[in-house]
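INFO batch 0412 | record 1 of 1 | parsing
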Amino acid sequence: MTPGDELPPLTVPITRTLIIAGALASRDYQDVHHDAEAARAKGSPDIFMNILTTNGLVGRYVTDHFGPEAVLRKVSIRLGVPSHPGDVLVLTGRILSVDERTVEIEVVGTNRLGRHVTGRVVADRPPHPRTAR
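INFO prediction complete | emitting tokens
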């Protein structure tokens, strides 16, 4: 594992259930995450995924690669375009730095509208990274 190494992509189908369950699990009761009529009234074509669900998917992407022994120390993300039901989110990553204790990964997630999320994750360096599933 060296800087510049790319992680294999993770493809996540964005379903209505994922969006609503993620909002409920994170106690985000904003109507735009579960009520399509309310979302349309506010200018969106449909409900859309909240930032906490996106944050969880970014964390999953890193731990899916490094395994359950990976400990996320810092997750910093910025949202771009929304993710709606029927979208497919593709997460990709690149190792930015590695030291004896930690690894820093740049993560980008795109969907049909463009870049949904960009961010960086710092994790404790696991002894043996997993291979892609």
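INFO post-check: The chain is about 25% helix and 35% strand.
INFO record closed
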